[in-house]
Every structure is written in C-alpha cells, then in structure tokens.
Amino acid sequence: MSIGIRPRPRGNPSLAVEGRRPARSRASLRAAGLLLGLALLATAACLSLAIGTKQIPLDQVWSGLFAPSGTENDAIVRELRLPRTLIGIAVGAALGLGGAVMQTLTRNPLADPGLLGVNAGASAAVVTAIGVLGITTFSGYLWFALAGAGLAATAVHALGGGRRATPVRLALAGTAVNAALFGYISGLQLWDLGTLDEMRYWSVGTLAQRDPSLLLTVAPLLAAGALLALSLARPLGAIALGEDHARALGTDIRRTRLLSVVAITLLCGGATAVCGPIGFIGLMIPHAARSFCGPDPRWLLPYCALYAPVLLLVSDVIGRVVVPPSEIEVGIVTAFLGGLLFIHLVRRRKAVRL
C-alpha cells in the first residue's frame, strides 16, 4: 500500500490577493492624483488667460483662442496672455523636474536647483553680457544665460569630485561657487549703475513681457532635459536607497550622477534663461508631491512636472491682482511662499539631520 504525500500549499491564494490589493489601491490613488494635476493645470491656465488688469469672461477667452473676431479681448488673450501662460507651463514643469532630480540625487530634502550654481551661473553670464558687452535684449541674454548655467554646473561637478562626486561634496561645491558668482555679480553692478538698472528687470524673475520666440528657442533643451530626467527615474530611485543598495541593483552611480547634473542644467538653465531666476518652485513642489505619492521618482517626477506649473501660474495670477492696476512679479510671490515653507521645514527638522 503506497502512501501519497500531499505537497504543502505555498501560501493561501486569497491572502496573496489581499496582499496585492493595497498596492493596487495605492497605484490607483497615485494615478488619480495625476489626473487631478491635469485638471488643476487646465484650471490654472484658464485663470491665467482670464484674469489680469482687465478681466475677460471664459467664453470670450474661448472665442479669442479658437474663433477670434478681431476684438480687443481677442488681442489680449492671443498676443499677451497665451504666450505668458505657455511660458509659465514650460518653465514651471522644468523647475519642478529639476528640483525633484536635485533632491533625489543629493538625498537632501532642502536642496534647490540653485544648489548646483545654475541660477548664479546664468545671472553672472547675463550681468557680463550687459555690463561688458553692452547687450540689452532678452534674446541676447538667452545664450549667455544658458552658457553660464552650464559652465557653473560643470564647475560645481568638477569641484565636487567629478566622477567621484558625492552629495555632500556637490552641496559644498555649489555653496562655494554660488558665493563667488554672486560676489562677482554684486561687484559688477555697483561698478556700472547702468548694468544694475538693466539687470534688475531680468533678475527679478517674471513671466511678463517675455518674447514667445525665446520659448521656441529653448523648447528643445527643455524637452531634452525633461526626457533625460524621466529616463533616470529608476536609477535615481535606487540611489535614494543608498549607494550600496544601488550597486547591488546594478546601477551605475557615476553615470547617473553625471546625467542628472546634465538634466538639471538643461531644465533649470533653460528656464532661468527665459524668465530669470525664479526660486523655491523646485523646493516646494517636490515636498508637496512626496507627501502624497511617496519618494519613488517614477511617480514623483511626473507629479512635479504637473503641479509645479500649477503653482507658478497661480502665483503669477496672484501677483496680477494683489496690487491693481500694477502687478508683482512672480519671482517675488514664489519667494514669499517658499520662504514660509522653508521656515516650516527647518523648524520641523533638527540641524543635524539636514
């Protein structure tokens, strides 16, 4: 008489199904957050088109976009507010992505794209173009700003150790380069008051009076930076777990760091070249998105690309209506909001943990 041995079941299938449900529900919730971001972005774009010194009803905004009849409102919508809104969307997405990559790369929750010297490098190049070469047009500033941002980021990466760069070294090198460049900027402005007068229109950070052709010029750079940042989501997620874990997962840490610096330079350098330095967007949005979607860059980066332009456009609308008929530049509004958030973050965390 043979005795059959019944194989032991490998777990309860019903329990396995129950274990998958939370993961599926989290993914569904995150996907819903992306859809909400799209809806909020569309709403913010409509507000940007409708609200200003002159309020335009949404039905007239729609007709001005798709069935213009040559009225004054059509001209305002198509020639003034539509380019401003499109620039705000592109620049906001670039700053949000750059901030998320920067914070993940350095594992520093208070990191900002300016930490790599991008803003300081662009500003130093622009002030040189104005004070030394006599260039006074935004189209003339553009390539100087891009070149300055790239050179500053390259210098920070080299001073931080090059291929052996670490998050701490990058942060220290960025602080040193920023201090040196802003000292140079202040000295040149004080030496030439005409440079100071021209520079203040660019350095304040604004979406107003920007030539739409500038966006067309930098659009390929912004698109390349965005695609590069999104392609680095998986290796950045591995690095966020620690270098040992990243190596165990087969991540090329040096290559990822170098490509991340390139992505940040393209995104933030292009955005700064078009609108001037706009601070704190890259700091605020990754924090807000991370509290909802978690630290995984595969979700964090798309969230930042959607919600950062929402914040930028809403801040721009606030600047238009707070002191009518004048307006406050968006860089000032975001600096005020970002300063409040920064104080909150510092008070929440001990200095030894930063």
From TrEMBL:
Entry annotated with the keyword Transmembrane helix: yes
Subcellular location: Cell membrane
Membrane topology classification: Multi-pass membrane protein
CDD domains found in the cross-reference section: TM_ABC_iron-siderophores_like (cd06550)
Alphabetical UniProt keywords: Cell membrane, Membrane, Transmembrane, Transmembrane helix, Transport
UniProt key word Transmembrane: yes
InterPro entries membership: ABC_BtuC-like, ABC_transptr_permease_BtuC
Residue intervals passing through the bilayer: 85-102, 114-135, 141-159, 171-194, 214-237, 258-285, 330-347
Record family assignment: Belongs to the binding-protein-dependent transport system permease family. FecCD subfamily.
Protein name: Iron chelate uptake ABC transporter family permease subunit
Origin species: Streptomyces justiciae
Taxon lineage: Bacteria, Bacillati, Actinomycetota, Actinomycetes, Kitasatosporales
